[in-house]
Amino acid sequence: GATLGVLGSGQLGRMFALAARRMGYRVHTLAPGAGSPTGQVADREVDAAYEDVEAVADFARQVDVVTFEFENVPAAATECAARHAPVRPRGEVLHITQNRRREKRALADAGFPTAPFEHVASMEALPGALERIGMPAVLKTAGFGYDGKGQTRIEPGDDPAEAWQAIGGVEAVLEAFIDFEAELSVVAARGVDGAMADFGVIENRHRHHILDVSIADMPLPGGLATEAREIARGVMEALDVVGVLCVEFFLTRDGRLLVNELAPRPHNSGHLTFDACLTSQFEQQVRAVCGLTLGATDRLAPAAMVNLLGDLWQPGEPDWAAALADDRVKLHLYGKADPRPGRKMGHLTAFGGDRDDAARRALRARALLTSTAAG
Ligand code: ATP
Ligand code: MG
Ligand code: MG
Prior knowledge:
Number of strands: 16
Bound molecules: adenosine-5'-triphosphate, magnesium ion
CATH superfamily of the largest domain: ATP-grasp fold, B domain
Mean pLDDT: 97
Shape: globular
Structural class: alpha+beta
Helix content: 25-40%
Low-confidence stretches: none
Distance between the termini: 52 Å
Largest sheet: 8 strands, antiparallel
Strand content: 25-35%
């Protein structure tokens, strides 16, 4: 059996490793720190900084293929790994998608629809950009943002200097605020041979900029579902992705799809595929990066997922048995020791008679986690 190398240490790597090990692969992971969610289930955990190119080279020499679960692996690390093993998706995909300016530029250049945006290199450039983009607008750091960190909304009358300080005064992208109808995503995969598959349209609801609920098979009017899936496939072809990629979309009130951002890896909104689809997004990543035929993505039943954030650990350990009293609810915990507020600790997937029923069950199960503890 082959050995698969993962750069990164979070829950995405953990679920990838679980899928890979089930299929008989060995999994090595490299990230700073030990005892990580990925490291706990990998065959070998290398504790090293991504900047330590010697360690990355040594890591890559001992595996047959390298993939990643962490978006901010520096280009130097993927370049160095690529000298010893194939890196899938290739480092250039990571390089583009880890910076909002490069990502939005690549999308716009390839003709994919995005919200109006402009690069903002300095505070001095912000007022002009606001003039052209209009308000309300959203200012986002170009790098290192996730779960809405590093972004701020700017309304008419707000002080641009304050907004610039709020995101830390670093290179940014300004985009028009979209008063969207809904948010959705398409998780797709592309194999070494160029074959593609996707998991359909997933509806996403956020709370405080963090994904809260995902529901499979969102019904969309006209040809919009097909359009979303074609955009996801088109993006993978344009970037020559081998692996899994998620496209996050806004659906505007006048029925247009806008690409919000890309993630060149399995995505939180695709976690429901673990239980709900013939092949999960994690098995699909294994299949894609190993050059296997992609798995069928059929959904087995209507399904919904809710995230479990660290907040649920107040005042104490959640009541898992209460949530699992519903025999159509599945629990996933990521093995994180420190349940900080806003931190993704796990998720629940629920099945139902239809998608609304599945979402209701997922939300009810989550509510039951804390209902007794609080009383
Ligand atoms: P993640 O990578 O965790 O999905 P992120 O920090 O990269 O998040 P975005 O996806 O850009 O951030 O934004 C997070 C959420 O904030 C979006 O899903 C959406 O709900 C809201 N948001 C972001 N940009 C806009 C916008 N231009 N107009 C309206 N809402 C927005
Ligand atoms: Mg993001
Ligand atoms: Mg996002």
